[in-house]
Predict the structure.
Amino acid sequence: MTPKKVLMVDDDLESIWRFTDVLTSQGYSVSRCADPKQAVDVFLREKPDAVLLDVKMPGRDGFEVLKDIRDRDRNVCVIMLSAYGGSSTVVEALKLKADNFADKSQDTEGLLLILEKELRTKDLEAQLRGLKRDNGHGLKCAGDIVGESEVMKAVKRQIEQYAEYAQDASMTIFITGDNGVGKNVVAEALHTQSERRAKPFKHLLCSNLQPQLVESELFGYERGAFTDAYRSKKGLIEAADGGTVFLDEIGTLTPEVQAKLLLLVDTGVYFKLGAEGVSKTSEAWFITATNLDIPKAIRESRFREDLYYRLNQAWIHVPSLRERGDDVILLAEYFIKLESEKLGKSPVALKPEYMDRLLSYRWPGNVRQLQSVIRRYVRTEGADERLYSAGFEDVSNGKESGDGAHDLKAARNEAVEGVEKKRIIDALARFGGNRTKAAKWLGISRRSLMYKIKKYGLPGRA
């Protein structure tokens, strides 16, 4: 992954080198400018992802530089720095569209957290702008899928590889994963990254229709094909017009429709209902998905083995949310942005104690459940006590937990937290307080470790 670029504009050379050492140790690429009169030229030349801009500088203050930068780039991350952070200075910085304000005298950990948070927010805003440009029709590429865990990086690599298969309609893609993991998002990313992106993407959720309706929706029908068929109708395959057809939850298809689908993907030939003697051909690219245990379904004669092997030219498994680690925080912030935008309100901040709950919960309903929970979080501005005291399943189902169940859950959480706190203390001691090395040894991100250190009130140096 290309490192994020940071431009430091400060006449205090000691501060520049102090922060440069810390930023480069965390993988950032750093440019420096000690003359505020040259800052805008350096900014235009370097094109950084973030600017750390001092307020008090001789000849030209940081507010003037900020105005010029904003005239040229409304979206770049700008964090103002000052050792004299009075409230009026902070207010002025935010009025001029700075993204945040940091005290230069605080420890470097604080600055790193602010920078990481604001860059993550900028990435989410860029994704939202991309979605708007696409007019809501889908993601532009695999890189737009929210998630930086290793398992999701593997999925993105598969998407980039398999999108090339679209050139050959016979190379079908088979997507598996639990309910709510986002199989439809993966399918749409495959389409929008393929050479078929300019053509239609047609999605049929097979489980939403009665078995007898799936065939008519998929293949279309002629007038008089059945009762109430007063006029002919194009099916989803014909409407795709050489684009992509995504059949979700194909495990619910009847044996009759499975047989017709096998003929279609094998030969490109299909028949509209009521026109069995007249064949039609399709050049659509097929992507299918299911949460079904296919080998079991084949053994029980509920799914055709030959159809499974024909559809599974390439296979992508979308992991459950509990396998994605810190992605739950990225997704939560992404959904906060979406919901806030929908309501026309400023995004609600994720409270540290709520982040911890998001990370520790197992998410049986996966991404869909998380989106539901975050929707409630945004609409109540994080003020609904059930978002903290009850299980997330109770939030989404609207059910209250019994006192006994709640007591048991609280006791279990306390025990887990005790073990977790001890492991963190041991890790920090093992590496002399170095949080980066401790996080790596614990198998969590540095950001997660920072949350937990704050939660348990633990010491530790950078």
